[in-house]
Amino acid sequence: MFETNPNLQQFTIGIVYCFIASLAFPVYIQIIHTIYFTKELNDNVSYKLINTMNIGDLVQSFLHVLTGLFIIFPTLTQKVLTFVKIVGYTNNCLFNSSFVIIAVLALIRLGVAFFHLNTNKWKFWMKKKRQTQSYSSHRAEIAILIQASVLTTYMGLLMALWHNAELWFEMTDITLACLNGSWIVFPHLNSFLLIVTNRSIRMQFLTLRSSKPNFNVAASSTTGAKILFTRSSATVTMK
């Protein structure tokens, strides 16, 4: 059941998937903790939405680790195909949800930053912000706009590549690995932009890192079937 993939290339791809995806765990745990327990950030509607997306990205990273394990252990994967499909569909839904959240956030931040849109009009369950907006608050809105714009562009390009991959590329193991890899890298891009563009998060994050021990995340490591994920259909292709 736990026989490893005899295809060395695919086995290596599975190991790389697990390693890259697992690197997101310690970073996101600290970012989510920072936003949730920092009143200035947690009271901000934008950061609440961002933190919701962060939780989704953390779950996506866990599912990407499972994806790597499915590639490493093809025999086991064939015995739990229903579960494999559930993982694929769940990951697909989380990615699409993140795209909606970040696209809406980009449009709203554009209005707040340049057209003085009143953010109180689109909040429902969050606390109201003060009507007056300080310079630092305005700078925070610009930072969120930059982050949201970059992520929206990246996600849009990624979806275009996925849905046109068969027309634009020769679908080899390496091609699918690169496409999946660009999907797995998305949570890392989000966390990187959060830390770089938002000074409050960066300072709190660095303080938390220096006051607590570092997390150590270990990389996860019958048939000659090829087990490859296709994100657009959220299924496993068996060749």
Task: Give an overview of the whole structure.
A hairpin with a 4-residue loop joins strand 1 (227-230) and strand 2 (235-238). Residues 118-133 and 213-239 have low confidence and may be disordered. The protein has a two-stranded antiparallel sheet. It has helices at 8-22, 24-37, 39-42, 45-72, 74-79, 81-115, 135-168, 173-197, 199-211; strands at 227-230, 235-238. It has a single domain (8-121, 134-238), classed as Up-down Bundle (Rhopdopsin 7-helix transmembrane proteins), CATH 1.20.1070. The chain is mainly alpha-helical and 239 residues long. Helix 6 packs across helix 7. The protein has nine helices and two strands, in the order αααααααααββ. The chain is globular and about 55 Å long. The longest helix is centred in the middle third of the chain and has 35 residues, at 81-115.
Descriptive key words:
transmembrane helix; membrane; transmembrane; 7TM GPCR serpentine receptor class x (Srx) domain-containing protein; two-stranded antiparallel ribbon; globular; 7TM_GPCR_serpentine_rcpt_Srt; 239 residues; disordered C terminus; mainly alpha; 9 helices; Rhopdopsin 7-helix transmembrane proteins
